[in-house]
Specification:
Length: 256
């Protein structure tokens, strides 16, 4: 376990030395370094950097709103701190959005990009719903949020095996996350629009959709891919949290 202070906050990170261009893994909302434990296990010998995004895991939880710019600034600053000149950026959900935005900012330093069910923005009609979810988290806490009537109904269709190691990691990281951080992230997503950054992504790009993903179905991921020069969209037999649900499939797509 390592910590670095960048941009005035403390970030927990794990850097595993190995071969090839470093793979930078960025977790989902409510996740942490552990969100990619199963994927890293399936990638022996690869150089891998993981970090807890600000507000999550054991990284610092600063006061005030969160922004995509905050997350991207932190990723780039940590790469600089660790003398990582170029990287293969990969992320899931909110982490996928961070990977896309970071690749647009990094230019040639982004050697390649893989975004799994990336969060890139929401249509106007969904904005109020996200803000209500933020309020629900602050009122009921994370456990109350996960057990609310509107949440578990989606899980059976998401093909997330409750008895799996991946689900155990998911539940532990989510329950260990501050409700305030999750609420701030939902409020960030309510105003997010990454589309203007897509044209600046010049590296080989793969967007991965989960066949059973209710939150960001394949048709949405394919639409995003068409806006990124040269990007391809791949659909896999998984739900939204594919790094925890189908880590071997994800690992195979991350092999150069």
């Amino acid at each position: 376990m390592n910590f670095a202070t960048v941009n005035g906050i403390s970030l927990r990170y794990d850097l595993r030395p190995g071969d090839g261009v470093p793979l930078v893994l960025l977790h989902e909302m409510g996740g942490a370094i552990e969100s990619f434990d199963l994927v890293v296990r399936a990638l022996p010998g690869r150089t891998v950097l993981r970090l807890d995004l600000r507000g999550f895991g054991l990284s610092e939880k600063p006061a005030g709103p969160l922004s995509m710019e905050n997350f991207v600034d932190d990723v780039i600053a940590l790469m600089d701190h660790l003398d990582i000149a170029a990287a293969h950026l990969a992320g899931c959900a909110v982490g996928g959005g961070v990977a896309l935005a970071a690749a647009a900012r990094l230019g040639g330093r982004a050697a390649s990009l893989t975004a799994m069910a990336p969060a890139t923005g929401v249509p106007p009609e969904r904005r109020d719903g996200l803000l209500k979810l933020a309020d629900m988290l602050e009122e009921n806490g994370v456990r109350g949020f996960l057990e609310a009537d509107t949440i578990p109904k989606a899980w059976p269709g998401d093909h997330f095996d409750r008895g799996s190691e991946g689900f155990a990691i998911f539940l532990a990281t989510q329950l260990g996350t501050s409700p305030a951080t999750l609420a701030r992230t939902y409020r960030m997503l309510a105003d997010l629009d990454l589309a203007p950054a897509f044209a600046a992504i010049t590296c080989p790009t793969t967007l991965i959709a989960g066949q059973y993903d209710i939150a960001r179905p394949p048709v949405l991921i394919e639409t995003i891919a068409r806006q990124i020069p040269g990007a391809r969209a791949v659909t896999v037999a998984s739900g939204h949290f594919m790094a925890l649900q189908n880590p071997d499939i994800v690992a195979g797509l991350l092999v150069p």
